[in-house]
Design goal:
The complex is a heterodimer of chains A (302) and B (322).
Chain A: H1 13-39, H2 58-65, H3 72-103, H4 108-120, H5 123-147, H6 161-187, H7 191-198, H8 203-231, H9 247-257, H10 262-297
Helix pairs in contact in A: 2-10, 3-6, 3-8, 4-6, 6-8, 7-8, 8-10, 9-10
Chain B: H1 5-11, H2 20-28, H3 38-64, E1 68-69, E2 74-75, H4 81-86, H5 99-132, H6 136-147, H7 154-159, H8 162-165, H9 170-177, H10 192-216, H11 220-228, H12 233-262, H13 265-270, H14 278-287, H15 291-315, H16 318-321
Antiparallel strand pairs in B: 1-2
Helix pairs in contact in B: 3-15, 5-10, 5-12, 10-12, 11-12, 12-15, 14-15
The chains are: A mainly alpha (302), B mainly alpha (322).
């Protein structure tokens, strides 16, 4: 990006007005969230609003020991597992699709519009549709099994965390992954791959040693999108998880039933996980980049 | 290979050396040398996911919207009863609005308020970041500050308004202790106001990101030329910046409008489960296992959303602008 050198002239008066507006906007974004983070440390006698009645980790202990209204453990593990699978699938499928779109293929435009439509169609509609699809599938399966005399196999149903639930989340994360891949591959200079080809690399070698290192930083972005979108997703989860509940579903249900700061402790816990994952990944990435740069700086023949 | 090609490439992820036409030219050359069927294999997983978890579900919804149902199950059929039920009394009782029309009207009201507010805030914030913050690292840092809240759950960000706006909330406490009001204000929470506020809080970022992105692509010399030609700041804004930021404004608007139209969680929580919305109607019908009528409502919602997006795309030719 070409930028002109910073001008030396004085800042116009509009700058200060806009800067103040921006500061207010940031306050608006963070203020409420800081409020519930603070209130989750209410004392045991404290309620849902200020003033703080002492400071304690009472509500966290209650939440995590399972003594409270919400059983967080199972839902938490489910959401983490689903988030991890969604994250890996999103990266792999987006990269493959990105490469396909780069080469071009028949139906590329149609597939692209379908992906964009998946972002635009309301989540409740997609969620209902997936639930209906799986119900119809189950009914069909049941009647087929009954007709060939295997009705004892026809008990369960196919709605679940890693069937319909996983698909519902991918229908939400993949368009984001795809758009990031487009942005990345558009900026990429093909000369590097041509150089690799001229040097005799196979297409796999050129992907592994040339393309992959170049797009690696964006893959971090895609995986973070994949995990957090899945970890926080409610609307598409609502009808597609079958009888299992994820953490956001527990949280959404708790908003109508729980009247103690336990719900804020739950909110703080979920936020803490999201942030640990994001900053952990970014930190790890920074470390890898640094060691890579250090290796590159070393004299060759190490 | 000297020095290691991979590390060298990784050190220079953004290539600015080649001129734009040269790069475009190079891009048109073959970048891969594997058989022609390979792209189809690569695109297959994506196509499969969208087929099974998007296209077929929409098909299933459409089909089921014509099915019959009784108290506990749905049966394949072809009937218009569900649509008749959705629009029951809508024409006969005019000018009194039927449930469906008034629900859509209520939803539309929130869409309009939230769209206008997020656009005003989003445009101003993006403008500040793009044109008033002078260095790129500072721009990135402030942009990150805006995006961090996006990394946490919508439900959490929604409920975080409750301790502020409630009867005994921080806002009421402050107003009373300052002597501005003698009694707590009741309309702050579980009202149209709190719903709109929470929606703006959740979705302003969807405006900031695409508008900021569009503004960053605007050639600064165009604005200087306008100023040199004697245009005032407002004239430059109106005649140069806004037309060039149009694609971003449109993308942000599509996001906000479609999300708010389908929202039921935020409206449920912040409206104290008392305010009607189209998504909430569908949700309630699903809970009562009335799948076919929920499907009919979903088809109607889908048509409304797609027509809105189509209308917005008519206003700006997005492919030409990009």
């Amino acid at each position: 990006m070409t930028r002109t050198a910073p001008r030396e002239e004085k800042r116009p008066r509009s700058f200060y007005a806009l800067a103040a507006f921006f500061a207010l906007f940031v306050l608006f974004l963070y203020g409420p969230v800081v409020t519930i983070l603070t209130l989750s440390f209410q004392g045991p006698q404290g309620g849902l609003t200020f003033p703080m009645n002492g400071v304690s980790t009472y509500w966290f202990e209650r939440l995590w020991s399972g003594r409270g209204t919400i059983d967080i453990g199972v839902a938490f593990r489910r959401s983490l597992a689903l988030g991890a699978v969604v994250m890996v699938s999103t990266v792999v499928i987006s990269v493959l699709a990105g490469l396909a779109f780069r080469r071009g293929f028949r139906g590329a435009t149609l597939l692209f519009y379908v992906a964009i439509a998946s972002l635009i169609v309301p989540s409740i509609v997609v969620s209902l549709g997936i639930a209906l699809e799986f119900r119809i599938l189950d009914d069909l399966l049941r009647s087929v099994l009954t007709s060939i005399g295997l009705q004892h196999l026809a008990g369960g149903n196919s709605l679940g965390l890693f069937t319909s639930g996983l698909g519902a989340h991918l229908s939400w994360t993949l368009p984001f992954g795809l758009l990031i891949m487009f942005a990345v591959l558009n900026r990429l200079n093909p000369a590097y791959e041509e150089a690799a080809r001229d040097l005799g690399a196979t297409s796999w070698q050129s992907f592994r040693h040339v393309l992959l290192p170049m797009i690696a930083p964006s893959l971090i972005g895609i995986s973070l999108f994949g995990f957090t979108l899945s970890f926080d997703e409610v609307a598409r989860s609502s009808q597609t998880m079958g009888s299992t509940n994820t953490l956001p579903l527990e949280l959404a249900a708790a908003t109508t039933t729980v009247t103690t700061p336990e719900i804020y402790a739950l909110g703080t816990s979920v936020t803490a996980v999201s942030f640990t994952v994001i900053f952990g990944t970014l930190g790890l990435f920074a470390l890898v980049q640094r060691s890579r740069r250090a290796r590159a700086a070393m004299p060759k023949g190490e | 290979m000297r020095p290691d090609l991979a590390t060298q490439a990784a050190g220079a992820p953004v290539q600015t050396g080649a001129s734009a036409p040269a790069r475009a030219n190079a891009r048109r050359r073959r970048t891969s040398w594997s058989p022609a069927f390979v792209p189809y294999l690569q695109a297959a997983p994506l196509a499969l996911v969208f087929l099974v978890f998007f296209v077929l579900p929409l098909g299933a919804t459409f089909a089921v919207s014509f099915w019959n149902y009784n108290g506990y199950s749905m049966e394949p059929a072809f009937t218009g009863t569900n649509y008749y039920d959705v629009f029951y009394g809508c024409v006969a009782n005019l000018p009194r609005l039927c449930t469906t029309f008034s629900t859509y009207l209520s939803t539309l009201k929130f869409v309009a308020i939230v769209w206008a507010t997020t656009l005003a805030i989003g445009f101003t914030v993006a403008y500040f970041l793009a044109f008033h913050v002078r260095t790129l690292p500072m721009q990135i840092a402030l942009f990150m500050v805006c995006t961090i809240p996006f990394w946490t759950s919508n439900v959490i960000r929604t409920i975080s308004w409750i301790p502020l706006l409630g009867r005994n909330g921080l806002v009421n406490q402050t107003l009373q202790s300052l002597g501005i009001t003698s009694q707590p204000i009741d309309w702050l929470l579980y009202s149209d106001f709190s719903v709109a506020l929470a929606l703006v809080h959740l979705y302003t970022l969807f405006m900031v990101v695409p508008i900021f992105n569009s503004m960053m692509r605007i050639d600064r010399s165009l604005m200087e030329a306008a100023l040199d030609a004697g245009a005032s700041g407002w004239q430059t804004l109106w005649n140069v910046v806004i037309p060039l930021a149009k694609p971003g404004i449109l993308i942000g608007s599509i996001f906000v409008v479609t999300i708010v139209t389908g929202d039921y969680i935020t409206i449920g929580i912040m409206g104290g489960q008392q305010i009607a919305s189209v998504g909430k109607v569908i949700q309630t019908q699903i809970n009562f296992l009335q799948f076919p009528i929920a499907a009919a409502n979903a088809v109607l919602l889908l048509i409304v959303v797609l027509m809105t997006v189509w209308g917005m795309l008519r206003l700006v030719d997005i492919r030409k602008e990009l």
